[in-house]
């Protein structure tokens, strides 16, 4: 969704006169000051959230999202949905899916910090 909005904004910007472009930039500055993005610091290290003995796939996804708050949730949840679907469709036991989720989250974390 964000990419679509950015593309639409860029397209509109390119079609504007120089005066209109300056006005748009001024308005964007005004909005960014009026509605600042509040960010909270995110740990670069995985948090220690223990895995319970019995856990549903949904609870595991929530636990892993808390364990790895630095990961892009859209990216991770897309892959997690595929694994969860296998369980819901009866193709894989919850414990096996949760094991795969743990491996996937850890791999995404490793990829994130390998790129920096």
Q: Note poorly predicted spans.
A: none
Domains (count) = 2
* Structure annotation, total helices: 5
Largest sheet: none
Shape: elongated
Please identify the oligomeric state. Answer: single chain
- Overall mean pLDDT score? 87
Helix content range: 55-70%
| DSSP E strands, number | 0
Q: How large is the radius of gyration?
A: 20 Å
Structural class, please?
Answer: mainly alpha
Q: State the order of secondary-structure elements, H for helix, E for strand.
A: HHHHH
- For the record, give the distance between the C-alpha atoms at the N and C termini, rounded to a whole number: 26 Å
Percent of residues in beta strands: under 5%
List the SSEs and their pairings.
Layout: H1 2-14, H2 18-34, H3 57-67, H4 73-88, H5 94-115
Helix pairs in contact: 3-4, 3-5, 4-5
What this model shows, in words?
- The protein is mainly α.
- The chain folds into 2 domains: 2-34; 57-115, no CATH class.
- The chain has helices at 2-14, 18-34, 57-67, 73-88, 94-115.
- Helix 3 runs parallel beside helix 5 (94-115) and helix 4 packs antiparallel against helix 5 (94-115).
- It is elongated.
Keywords:
68% helix; 5 helices; 116 residues; mainly alpha; 2 domains; 0% strand
Q: What is the compact description of this entry?
A:
This protein has 2 domains: 2-34; 57-115, no CATH class.
